[in-house]
Amino acid sequence: QVQLVESGGGLVQPGGSLRLSCVASGIVFTYYNMAWYRQPPGHERELVAALTRGGSTSYADSVKGRFTISRDNAKATVYLQMNSLKPEDTAVYFCNAGVGRYWGKGTLVTVSS
After folding, report:
1. Among 7, 43, 72, 75, which residue has the fewest nearby CB atoms (within 10 Å)?
2. β partners of residue 108
3. pLDDT tens-digit profile of 21-78?
C-alpha cells in the first residue's frame, strides 16, 4: 500500500519559515519524480515545486527564490523549505509522487500575523 505522509505545517508569521516533509512508503522512492502542490482556500490545486529523480527542479513563479524542494532517497523523504512566507502562501500543501499518481492527505500552512 502506497502512503505519502506530510508533516511540518502550521501557523507562521509573514516573513517566517517552515519546512515541510513527506515520507513515502510502498514505492521504490528513487524511481519517482516528486512534487509539492498546494490548494489555497477557495482555489484549485496548483503545482508549487517539482523534483525529478535525476535531481532537476522547477518552481512556480510565485515561489521562486523563496522555496526549495529537496529529497533524501535514503529516507524516502521529500522536503519543501519555505522562506519569506507571505499570507498568499496560506494553503493545504500536498505531496505527490509520479506526476499525479500518488497523493498525500496534505498539511495546512497558515501565514498570518
Report:
1. 43
2. 92
3. 999 999 999 999 999 999 999 999 999 999 999 999 999 999 999 999 999 999 999 9
Which residue bears the cell 490545486? 45
**Burial classification of residue 89, based on how many CB atoms lie within 10 Å of its CB (0-12 exposed, 13-18 middle, 19 or more buried):** buried
59-71 confidence digits (pLDDT tens): 999 999 999 999 9
| One-letter identity of residue 38 | R
Q: Alpha-carbon distance 32 to 54, whole Å? A: 9
Q: How far apart are CA 104 and CA 89, in angstroms?
A: 19
Q: At a CB cut-off of 8 Å and minimum separation 6, what does 72 contact? A: 78, 79
Instruction: Give the residue from 57, 37, 55, 56 showing the smallest Cα distance to 47.
Output: 37
CA-angle at 106, arms to 47 and 49, nearest 5°: 25
